[in-house]
Fold this sequence. Notes:
It contains 13 helices and 17 strands. By secondary structure, it is α/β, with parallel strands linked by helices. Helix 2 (123-131) runs parallel beside helix 3 (150-158), helix 7 (297-305) packs antiparallel against helix 8 (309-317) and helix 7 (297-305) packs antiparallel against helix 10.
Amino acid sequence: MPKVDMDMSSGKIAVWHVEEGAAVKAGDPLFDIETDKAAMEVESPASGTLHHILAEVGAEVAIGKPVAWVYTAGEAVGPAPAGGSDEAVSAASVAAEASPPAKPDAFEISDGPGRQDKARATPKARRLAREHALDLAGIDGSGPRGRVSAADVEARIQGGTLDPQQSGRPGGWQAEAGALKVHRAGGGGSVPIFMIHGFAGDSSTWKDLEPRLPAGHPVLKLDLPGHGKSPRRKIDSFRQLARAVVEAFDLEDLPAVHLVGHSLGAALALALADVRPRRIASATLIAPAGLGPEVEGGILAGIARASRRESLGPWLSQLTAGTELPGDGFIAAAMAARRDPALRAYQCDLAETLFPDSVQSFDLGPALSRLQAPAKIIWGRADKVFPWRQALRAPGRVALHLLQETGHMPQNEAPEEIAALLSAMLRGTEPRLEVEGTASGS
């Protein structure tokens, strides 16, 4: 059971790349340390499971002070070994020790904010790569032993600008920096609800459902890259998109959430639950992508391409069970968010990346089989985008609700029914709190 030590007089922990309970391999980056003269990345000395993080981000660590331990296979995890740091063990660490170790993720998503697979890179290069959602493994390093420098990442960022010829779309688009937007509403002491919309949507996807959610739960609504108010990040695969979602989730630093996702957002919620299982109180997946190869790609591409209300309306009508066009007000509001040609070009390219040749390019079946939290799948039987029979891949412990006369947008077509199902889920999974010595349900 090697301990992870510092080899300098003192330094400040800049970032942890892995969480307590995460599986690591020898040579994996564990954390970045900064001094007044330099910054460096510290790698794991052995393969195993990380436990007992004694120095949080921002903590000053003296020479010889262990900051964490890596337990090799078969070693029992008990209290922090003697001789550790004077720093107090955080509440998150205590919770991690009481839970089973996290499983390696199915999509090679980072095990913590900013980890970029096994590529050798400077801390500044990793920071730039995180900000621009770039995969360091795909960047050639110019430093010693192929180490990626900030200049290497900046060169790739500059290459992320697309012109009309590169993107194949009028106007093209340009990669943007910045964190994904998370909209916050509500309050109270209950576990927050973390919501992820689907392809070509944004936080307004939840406008019919949100007022019907149980009171007392803070609500956080994530905008995916190139959607709503989030920057347009270069996304080359579902795996990279999932990394961006995990990064945004980690930045919120939430000990537990109720996940709610729709369509592509449900697939991303499932990927998130796969790598952050101890933080997921429940998962509600509405018409989830990723459970089969079939998808009506023409609908998704048509919505992404539409540049006028007259062309957008017929495609929007395919999202519901009926055949009539949505109201003029609804179409106008949807088109108002899509007037930017660069946004449409970005979403067209994203659709081709995720659903090439009208096929789902990612499979969430294994992640669904590993899902630990209580979960529901809700699907409309009249869904024209994803066949509802893909839900039959779910294991028996996942509740399945099939709604009659409902299409791909149950949260808008049947918000009362979705709210009731979600409320029942939350009541059944909320932790019991001790109030003045008396147990009461939250």
